[in-house]
Amino acid sequence: MKTIETQSDQSSLLTEDGSVISLRDDLDLIKNYLTPAFLKKYTVFTSLEDFLQSAGFSVSTQQDFELIPATVMDAWVLQNSKFLNWSEMVSAAGDFYFDTQMKAIKFKSI
User: Fold this and answer.
1) What is the pLDDT, as a whole number, of residue 26?
2) pLDDT given for residue 105 in this prediction
3) Which of 39, 47, 73, 77 has the fewest CB atoms within 10 Å, i.e. is most exposed?
4) End-to-end alpha-carbon separation of the chain, Å?
5) How far apart are CA 36 and CA 45, in angstroms?
């Protein structure tokens, strides 16, 4: 997945079909991508909830998630993962999710 910047300085993911997913718009989608397996591999956390709570973020709703300042989230990601910022982390999580799904169906590239 490719990360793009929108006019509102909000990072988004460009999907294979050309549609755009805003990283701030869909907490449920991000929860699907930031799986325990991904977080264990790239951070010291075992869940998205642990990752967010350890940063001091109380996220129980979509609105809570949207209120997290991007610069604060980027700094937390840089300090606590192998990624430079939140956008890079979510993009990698999307790739990881896709690879995991392909392996689950035993897809082999040609």
Assistant:
1) 77
2) 85
3) 47
4) 20
5) 8
Domain positions in the chain: 25-104
And the tokens for 86?
A: 């939140």
CB atoms < 10 A from the CB of 98, how many?
13
Per-residue pLDDT at 36 exceeds 90: yes
Confidence class for position 28, pLDDT limits 50, 70, 90 = confident
DSSP string, 58-100: --SSHHHHHTS-HHHHHHHHHHHBSSSSHHHHHHHHHHHHHHH
Query: What string of DSSP letters covers 46-69?
Result: SSHHHHHHHTT---SSHHHHHTS-
Write the single-letter amino acid at 37.
A
